């Protein structure tokens, strides 16, 4: 019985890993669509979000079925509960990439991001991509040291977000209110994307060690 | 065994109800603090968020312990899994009230909301309060008809949110970029607050009927 259980747990973990790969791709594509006003790519991200939602839905059903059939206790049960939460976080990260792609589509054929903010958006995307890259390792190998690192990477996201707001408030901002609203929301989407990644890393840390990450 | 289980399930449901009461109070207080530049009230909401977080944390532990001890299957198991999700949504609603209170504190002694937007913020608060009021009934009585209604109420939140953005983009907006950023984020917090309430209503609907709300 235990072997079947751990095989299924392993398969569930692989699905989480697949979700994190899809979410990374969605964010990278959404950022590219945003910066290059690529409508086709934006539409691709928007459509792909349904796939992530479906995987999330199926994964939850599999997890709940496994709970019902195998009746796990202690750490096995906590592991499955963590899976449900990680899957919800990943699904939400997909939504945020979807929001970014929708902003690109809304402003097409114009570019939603004024040149003065291009480099910050590139940095937000790069930092977020590196966070999801680490997240995949954390999920795959239950790597608690990397989980500890992620909090620092997220500080970088927050710093970039503050930098973005500073540009909006600076003298060089001549792009008006509509663009300021777009950029405020875009900044928020990237920031929340990072928050959800940290939340997943925390769950892995807790599942492995039974403790919360100290700084939290 | 079943009676103990259902007694505990009932107690868990009461805690969800208590959380929804606290979340409603937090939002009402946060809005009042925001509109009247009441620093003390803002601080109260900010501090009270720790209480909501603690209840969320304890509730999750109780739910997982109940799963481990009673090994529920089928609808009882789905019920407990729903509890975990509803508790996470309520905790997030508390965070959003906390964000609103922090905006009030950040702009103190000034008022973060320009007069031209006061009535929209009042309406967002009123609609959100009525949504959480219904949500309490939905949680308490597993009232699926009310759960269906909530989606419509949330449309009103979205309409108010669009109205807010329209004011920011209109000619009468003379309050500059900083205030536009504040109001964009505030609008987003209220909108997300409504989204989480709908998500909870959907889970109750699903738990009772075994089906998803048709319009979704």
Report on the architecture of this protein.
By secondary structure, the first copy, chain A, is mainly alpha-helical. The first copy, chain A, has a single domain, classed as Phosphate transport system protein phou homolog 2, domain 2 (Methane Monooxygenase Hydroxylase, Chain G, domain 1), CATH 1.20.58. Chain A is 87% helix and 0% strand. Chain A is built from six helices and no strands. Chain A has helices at 2-36, 39-70, 74-107, 115-141, 144-169, 176-209. In chain A, helix 1 (2-36) packs antiparallel against helix 2 (39-70), helix 1 packs parallel to helix 3 and helix 4 (115-141) packs parallel to helix 6. The two termini of chain A are 37 Å apart. The mean pLDDT of chain A is 94. Chain A binds chain B through residues 64, 67-68, 71, 73-74, 77-78, 81, 84-85, 88, 165, 168-169, 173, 177-178, 180-181, 184-185, 188, and chain B through 60, 64, 67-68, 71, 73-74, 77-78, 81, 84-85, 88, 165, 168-169, 173, 177-178, 180-181, 184-185, 188.
């Amino acid at each position: 019985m235990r072997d079947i259980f751990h095989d299924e747990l392993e398969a569930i973990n692989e699905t989480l890993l697949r979700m994190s790969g899809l979410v990374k791709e969605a964010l990278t594509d959404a950022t590219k669509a945003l910066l290059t006003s690529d409508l086709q790519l934006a539409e691709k991200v928007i459509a792909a979000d349904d796939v992530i939602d479906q995987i999330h839905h199926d994964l939850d059903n599999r997890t709940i079925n496994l709970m019902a059939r195998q009746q796990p206790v202690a750490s096995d049960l906590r592991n499955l509960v963590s899976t449900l939460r990680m899957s919800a976080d990943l699904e939400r990260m997909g939504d945020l990439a979807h929001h970014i792609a929708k902003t690109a589509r809304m402003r097409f054929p114009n570019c939603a991001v004024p040149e003065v903010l291009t480099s910050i958006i590139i940095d937000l995307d790069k930092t977020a991509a590196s966070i999801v890259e680490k997240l995949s390792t954390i999920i795959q190998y239950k790597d608690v040291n990397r989980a500890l690192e992620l909090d620092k990477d997220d500080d970088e996201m927050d710093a970039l977000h503050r930098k973005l707001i500073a540009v909006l408030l600076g003298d060089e901002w001549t792009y008006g209110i509509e663009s300021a609203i777009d950029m405020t929301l875009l900044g928020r989407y990237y920031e929340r994307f990072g928050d959800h990644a940290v939340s997943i890393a925390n769950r892995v840390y807790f599942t492995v060690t039974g403790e919360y990450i100290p700084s939290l």
